Amino acid sequence: MLISYNWLRELTGTKLTPLELRERLTMVGLAIDSVDEKDGDSLLDVEVPSNRPDCLSHVGIAREVAVIEKSKVQSPNSKVAKTEGKASDFAAVEIEDTELCPRYAARVVRGVKLGPSPDWLEKRLDEIGQRPINNVADITNYVLHELGQPLHAFDLKKLAEQRIIVRRAKTGEKLTTLDGVERKLDPEMLVIADAARPVALAGIMGGLDSEISLSTVDVLIESAYFDPDSIRRTARKLGMDTEASKRFERGADCENVVNAQTRCVDLIGEIAGGLATEDAIDVYPRPQPVRSVTFRPERVESLTSLRVDAAEMDRILSALGFVSAAAAKDKAKTFVVPSWRVDVGLEEDLVEEIARHVGYERIGSELPPAAMAGEYQPAEIKRRSLRRALTALGFDEAINVSFIDAAHDEVFALAAVPQLSKHSSLVSLNNPIIEDATRMRPSLLPGLLQSLRHNFNQGTKDVRLFEMGRVFVGSEGNELPHESESLGLIASGGASEQDRAQATRELDFYDLKGALEAAIAAVNLPALVFTGAEVKHLRAGQAANISLADGTVIGSVGALSETISAGYKFRQRVYVAELNLTPLFEIAEHEIKYEPLPRYPSVVRDVTLLVGRNVGFTELVAGIESEEIDDYRGVKLVGTYEGQNIPGDKRSVTLRVEYRSDQRTLRDEEVEGRHRRLLDSLLKKFNAELH
Asked: Strand, helix or coil at 205?
């Protein structure tokens, strides 16, 4: 938002230079992005926080400057000079939906002469980026930037029956706004209507049919307060972002409605002439209650370590508009919160106001006192072990925001929360911080894929990333969303090694699978079970479900599907995995047992089997161990072969079986007998052949 230095100087008499103001305002929480010179003025580009709508005006910024310089704001004191008649004699106002419009004021000015604005007004608006239109429209824009209250001027004769009705739009209604675009309305949108049709989008933009023009003689000046959520929803749905909507959707000052209108009518009488009504039609059925906060001065030091005199605290709060109502017990005070400070409701808010004007840089750093020893949170040791293991395997940790674009809806299987997937829903944000990020993430994969694309765009093609964080899935009814802790992995490119400039091979499915197994082993948890499966976001034939020993599915791993890869414009194979850590962390760790080194040698036997392509190594291991062969110690995979001289539905698998006794050295005939029994069992169970 652009703020004119000359305008601020008129309001406060500031002696600070524009660059000094930039420094001082930034230090109290109003960051100044730049200071530019234009036509003998300096323009401060103020980054106003979303919770400070009171600073979306010159008077709002002037209050902060006045506190800094210990001065006062010279707010305009308006009084309409020429008046005649009651507003109700010329117009009527009705509010049908007082929830979305708690207050609406209308005042009529007759006999105005529309034309160009005086030079000083055009210059002031042009400096802050507003295009001059005509004197009446320019005055409404001037007051908006001066006091922060959006206003609108209607041509009174263009309003059917000279009536204003504030209501929800009807199904199928349309409105052509001032920008010439026809808008399709729905019953969730609030409109300003006359006796026949909508004439404006409430709090956003006026309608073309009721626009003032050079032929306008009588104008109706609107000043109102609209529900912030309603304005925000309508503006987003219609893709509109106006000066009015920016202020209403953050929270305007409901008590400033008539004051700003009076200022506007006063300037119209001065610049465009005309005769104003003696009063305004002010429909305000349920006035907002006065808000107050109890404040204990000693809380400033206890929360911030700042020692501030009581008189200085009172000066800061008073200059910001907080009025001391009465002293409470125990030296506490009660302050009435000004109507423009919609962000204040707690004692801590007042402490923050004092702290930012005393100086955040003066706050000391110290550890909070504690009477007990610290301890790790549940599962924290396991998280650390996972991070160490994955880092040792060449993965870098990624940290992404918890909000994602709605474009990812239904793209990824909820592998990390399978027990909820059938009845789950996506969690939407009512007030998203980022316009395109309206969903709480149900998966870590969208964020990891975005990180991968960023690396690719920066020229890094060999990428291995992991992320641990929470994922969110909606629940039935009004219950809070379900949260699960998830682990996501992504890998693409070459398998680079330390001190090697060039990758020796490309990463594949088994790199990611092995990383998961190694990480789980590092946490001393039971081994995971991998089973081939069809997963929505993974390539067919290169995807597997991840389960616990009891069969509970907790995730998936595989190659990213071609459709998603094409959407991200990936030109190389990408492998992803996601794991629900919540049930894993609930499992007790294995008890670590130590054994002496074996005293007697092992005997190994290799066997090559021709088995169906659907038979996996895990199944072969399970088949071997189910036989409970005496002195059997384990089996390892030597390799597989598919190709020439092997049927298309078969593959050759070579296993290495180990035998060893703890009492003596095994004889060859004993090993052969045990091994023959094992082979006969495998050939029968898997319909296999020796190869």
From this structure: strand
Q: Which residues contact 510 (CB under 8 A, 6 or more apart)?
A: none
Q: Which two tokens stand for residue 470?
A: 């929470």
Q: Look at strands 281-283 and 103-110 and give their pairing.
A: antiparallel
- How confident is the model over 80-132, as pLDDT tens digits? 888 999 999 999 999 999 999 999 999 999 999 999 999 999 999 999 999 99
Same fold, 2-69 and 292-358: yes
Instruction: Give the amino acid at 176.
Output: T
In contact, 517 and 386? CB cutoff 8 Å = no
For residues 221 and 241, what is the distance between their CA atoms, to the nearest angstrom?
A: 22
pLDDT at site 478: 63
Burial 182-209 (b: 16+ CB within 10 A, else e): ebebeeebbbbbbeeebbbbbbbbbbbe
Residue 104 to residues 166, 226, 352: CA-CA distances in angstroms? Answer: 8, 9, 33
- Looking at the domain covering 603-690, what would its CATH class be? alpha beta
In what helix (H) or strand (E) does residue 8 lie, and over which residues does it extend?
helix 5-12
Classify each residue of 364-382 as buried b or exposed e, where b means 16 or more C-beta atoms within 10 Å of its C-beta. Answer: eeeeeeeeeeeeeeebeeb
Are 635 and 656 in contact by the 8 Å Cβ rule? The answer is yes
Residue 477 binned pLDDT confidence (cut-offs 50, 70, 90): low
The per-residue pLDDT for 417 is 53
Q: How far apart are CA 4 and CA 272, in angstroms?
A: 24
User: pLDDT tens for residues 397-451?
Assistant: 999 988 888 888 778 877 555 444 444 578 888 877 777 788 888 899 999 999 9
| C-alpha span between 148 and 243 (Å, rounded) | 10
Whole-angstrom distance, CA of residue 577 vs CA of residue 542: 12
Residue type, 424: S
Q: Yes or no: say if 220 and 161 are a contact pair by the CB < 8 Å rule.
A: no
Q: How many Cα atoms sit within 13 Å of 169 on the Cβ side?
A: 21
CA-nearest of 299, 356, 354 to 322 is: 354
Residue 330's DSSP bridge partners are: none
Assigned CATH class of 2-69: alpha beta
Q: Are 48 and 30 in contact (CB under 8 A)?
A: yes
Residue 689 contacts by C-beta under 8 Å, 6 or more apart in sequence?
609, 610, 683
- Cβ-defined contacts of 289-293 (< 8 Å, 24+): 290/336, 290/337, 291/336, 291/337, 291/344, 291/345, 292/325, 292/334, 292/335, 292/336, 292/337, 293/334, 293/335, 293/337, 293/344, 293/345, 293/346, 293/347, 293/349, 293/350
Distances (CA, A) of 141 to 130, 135, 417: 8, 10, 52
What CATH number has the domain spanning 292-358? 3.30.56.10
Domain ranges within the chain, ordered by starting residue:
2-69, 87-283, 292-358, 380-585, 603-690
- The whole-angstrom separation of Cα 24 and Cα 551 is 62
Tell me the fold of 87-283: Phenylalanyl-tRNA Synthetase; Chain B, domain 3 (3.50.40)
Q: Find out whether 528 and 576 touch, Cβ atoms under 8 Å.
A: no
CATH code reported for the domain at 380-585: 3.30.930.10
Q: Contact, 448 vs 390, CB < 8 A? A: no
DSSP for residue 586:
T
Compute φ and ψ for 164, nearest 5 degrees. -115, 125
What pTM did the predictor assign?
Answer: 0.62
Q: What would the pLDDT profile of 620-661 be if each residue is shown by its tens digit?
A: 998 999 989 999 999 999 999 988 888 888 999 999 999 999
Mean pLDDT of the region 321-326: 86
